[in-house]
């Protein structure tokens, strides 16, 4: 029984990057031996165990065979006879197909260290094409390591094109696709993820709405450079689409509610925000009401940030509408409802009076 660190932990250590999660591989052990040593089984598809003390995951060495469509279309075989080399050859990229034993010796049968030095993302074997999820994974690694100068090998891009042409990407579930997209959006250069998908014809299958939208990637790049959260980055990416298209993308990928809301509101209101300095007070109030700035001020702030990132992505130096919109929201929120309640107003009458007072506040703000 031999235990190895595998995958990302080895890769990132060799790159001099922090190692957060460690994947452990066990070669030469049976399920019964793992039970006897106190490891607790988890995972329905293949034998994975939790360490009795650390709780870290330990997987038995395994091989896999394509048995159906999509990410889940595999049959796994785990036994003490599966070697380290047989396990590593089923992995996606050479830089992820290295192992390190307890003495610190690195096993690198597919020359991952060479590709690390060359800054190349290269597939391990032709079996790469059997898993459509690898198209998204490679694109995500390209986004993560773009700051270090990594690029996708041309021969790997060609295999990714073959997967795109095969129709296998359509077999991915919305949940699996979104998980990769979400992780990619939070990388240092998320625009690279979508550029790689476009280069291998996968964007046409997954997000055809963005194929010709260079400004979407520019806005996303700015959002990442300014370390914005996920929902802001998603709204930046979709900011140029019509509301109906944004709805369709959100539903197709089952994006989280916060992402869906901000992206849709951005699609509906971006043009108004860009004209904020010329908007009459009534239109400005309607814009603020749409965001419910009284109960959800952060959502409006996030929208203003999306507008700013979009402007920066278009090459503009500033976005004076941002301060103006924030000031308008502050003026509207500052209207005190108490005098109206004390005057005996209730229900619809109270709502109309409060709206009138907020309109006055915005008219005064606009004149200032």
UniProtKB/TrEMBL annotation:
Record protein name field: CCA-adding enzyme
Binding sites annotated in the UniProt record for CTP: 8, 11, 91, 137, 140
Annotated SUPFAM superfamilies: Nucleotidyltransferase (SSF81301), Poly A polymerase C-terminal region-like (SSF81891)
GO molecular function: CCA tRNA nucleotidyltransferase activity
Phylogenetic lineage: Bacteria, Pseudomonadati, Pseudomonadota, Gammaproteobacteria, Pseudomonadales
Segments forming domain Poly A polymerase head: 4-122
Chain residues that bind Mg(2+): 21, 23
Keyword hit for Nucleotidyltransferase: yes
CDD domains (UniProt xref): NT_ClassII-CCAase (cd05398)
Major enzyme class: transferase
Statement: the UniProt record of this protein carries the keyword Nucleotide-binding: yes
Named cofactor requirement(s): Mg(2+)
Boundaries of every tRNA nucleotidyltransferase/poly(A) polymerase RNA and SrmB- binding domain copy: 149-210
